[in-house]
Amino acid sequence: MSQRRFCKWEVSRSLSELIVIVLLLILSLSGARALASDLTSDIETLIAQSGIDPKATVAVYVVDAQTSEVLVNRHGEKPMIPASNNKLLTTAAGLSLLGPEHRFVTKLYTDGPLTTPTLPGNLYVVGGGDPTISGRFEPNKRDVTAPLRRWADTLTSLGITRIRGRILADDTLFDDQYFHPTWYPGERGEWYEAEISALAFNDNCVDLLWSAEKRMPGDLADVTLNPPTRYVRLHNHVRVVAKGRSAERWYLRKAGSNDIVATGTLTVGTTKEDSASVNDGALYFATVFHEVLTSAGITVEGKPKHVRPTPAEQRRYKRVLIAERESPPLREIVKVINLVSQNFYADCLLKYLGRTKLGEGSFDAGCRVVMDFCRKQQLYHEGHRMVDGSGLADRNRVTPRQLVEVIRFMDQGPYRTYWRESLPIGGERGSLKSRFQETTETRTRARFIMGKTGLIDEVRSLSGIVRTDSGRERYYSIIVNGFRRDGQRVIQLIDRIAVALTRD
User: Fold this and answer.
1) Does this model's pTM top 0.85?
2) C-alpha–C-alpha distance, residues 183 and 145, integer Å
3) Which of 328, 359, 374 lies at the terminal end of a domain, its last residue?
4) pLDDT tens, position by position, 283-301
5) Residues sharing a CB contact under 8 Å with residue 393, sequence separation 6 or more, in sequence order
6) Domain check: are 415 and 468 in the same one?
7) Which tens digit of pLDDT belongs to each residue from 151-189?
8) Could you tell me the CA-to-CA distances from 143 to 136, 248, 276, 376, 498 in Å, in that order?
């Protein structure tokens, strides 16, 4: 073959290969567009058939995890109220800025000489923003005072049997805005509106163990407080009802009060465990610690006191460190935030971010840190507004697209494993454990759906990662705002959309 003929043959072959590649790309793009069109059409059909309030806004944004191609964009760039999907922003910033091994430290001092058997001064507890001082990470989760008993054991091992002073509780790492002004005040007694303080005990809640095992319909239900503290006064109006009747309880508490009014019902022959929030988490900590020391045979002569010393006063204190308590690593705390949607943990993390990055342990400073993080990582979208870390406030705004981009950022970053471990999975764990139970197909596909749930008045949301039949993954966000009825139907719609996203 001559050189000239060879060159012509090579050019012809190269041109043919190029044409094939272009045709394959066209076919691929056409297939992708067809897939996106089919998904969008399926979702529109589901919405039309759902029977939800026609005034509701249903926003859906979905991308292919591998190619980043947008598969669905229905109001995807509209700022929406995210409810607890806000926690995705808080935990993404927390893991990224603090690292998964970060631990919160609470310290126990005395402000006098460390003498035995009597301490002449006070015990001084300094809060480090740790939300985990409870039974949650203990072998027995109901053993809520276990962390405090370990401190009592330390004092006993030092030979201390009496404290002349009192227990002083310092929570100045955070500000004194314990309750966000946009949260609904009528529900401040519920666990999900617990006060946010730098020194806290048992999620700033008291647990209530209810029993109707020895009662008849119409009787008052039996209740036991855990811990059995004098710090709260419970007014029990919970009645036993017959089997088959709905049973639910509510907790009312006025601002500044620890009088908790319990109302509602409990089914005959059953037991339930609830939690109700308390006022002044730092004083709650000090009071229960006082009670624990008394039970351990250590006398504390003075009454517990909540203190907020100024920086100048803190510098003047001469304190001797007795003990300190480290929290579990942040990667475990993030699991609690996202798996069970723990508002208290989320807003403690938010305020801690504000304190460590801006020197101000407040809701506002924490939100500025998270929003700055989003800007620096090119995750910020126009209309993003953040006022708390938990999503309990209805003034938060975020687009479904921004949530998807945050999910993608974390899932493709160094903390992917910890991020995924924190997300609920349909039918298996967290707040999705009881979802997707309608049919055999939904129960089968549930395990392919990973996502963070959200629920406040007129808001339902779900954002996360789905896997399709072929093993491809998709990042998604579904947010519904503005409905005035049938919240359960909205959840059913969201679940059906999520199931549809698992199909190829």
Assistant:
1) yes
2) 29
3) 328
4) 999 999 999 999 999 999 9
5) 180, 182, 183, 387
6) yes
7) 999 999 999 999 999 999 999 999 999 999 999 999 999
8) 8, 25, 17, 42, 38
